[in-house]
Input
Amino acid sequence: MDWQLLIAVGITVFLWRDVCLLSAARSVLSPVYGTVQIAAFLLLGIFAETISRDEAFRLLRDPRLWIPAVVLHLVLWAVLFYGQRRQRDWVRQLAMFPNPIFLFSAGGLVWLILRTGISRDGWVAGLLAAAAWITAVLALAAVKKHFAPSTFPTSVSFAATSNLTAILLVPLEQSGSTGDAMNVNTIHDLLYFLSNLFLLPTLFGTLAAFAYGTYAVGQFLSELTDHRANRKLLRDLFSGPPTEARFREKPWRGHFAGFRNAREKHAEFPAMLDKHVSELEHRLTGRIERLGIMAKVGPMLGLIGTLIPLQPALAGLARGDMQAMGANLQIGFTTTVLGLIAGGTCYAISVFLRHWYQQDLTDIHFLNALWAEPDGSLSDASLQSPPTAAVQPNGDGLAQGREAFRRAQR
Output
């Protein structure tokens, strides 16, 4: 990996980290920040004067150095995350702590100043680098604070996340190119390294998607039994007077059983019944959306799991290593098959469940409105007795009805 690319990535990340932290502060100028940065750059300048680029990269490739650096970055991330959750005052100062990756990037900046010949003294190059860094950070922070100031939680979150860059930057090795300028091979090596980082998470994600699809199939079969039983009970309910008493007598399952329990529990609070129905609708919609997401994510994981091993497989074919090519192709094709099975299964289940849930919610809304009280809706008594029973057949009753109708017309 080209050393200039590593320096550029590290400087960009930590420059923006400091900009966000200072833009969220009450005052842009921070004596503590300036003192820490100047001291760090001075030490780096003295160190860069006595070590070459190759020696620096040999140190970076030494596991005894970069493994503790990764651990330190993870510890800093955990401490910053804890401090942000607890809203501690020391979090802002700790977020500006010069971690190993920052020191590496700043050391590269000092070494570039020494290489250009502006100064041959390490401490002078360190002062120049510190002045350039602090000036750039304060200027950008002032501009950002004026136009788009950062909040304290956001800036600390970015600072905590920047410590995780150690996982990507520290283990990178120097590429075979000897040129100082970045080239196409350098960018290719970086992209290849980053893509390989996602192979193991993709395999775990595909396995999790397949497990979720298997679980969805089992849950679908259970809901299929409940759906058929409830449809049969609804046909029996609507074949006669759909009273609430007849509804409660039937052995409902699933959503209808919950609706029956809610009507028994909240019989005197119609608003609670409406809330129960709304929550049921929200829960069913969420299940359909989760299945829809998995129907798209499964094939995506399968495709990613195919493309990542494809490059080493082709490289093995070019070398004549058929065993390596076969192993990589086996990983890719297996991931594709499992991802497509999981996605297709979740999509088919979501189509059936969407239709069933629409039917169930329509019937539940109808029954809830049918038995609503006390706004004049039909009650059990009015449903059981025919409407003609309330009409008096004698002449006096008819005369009284005509007289009441004329008064209403006036």
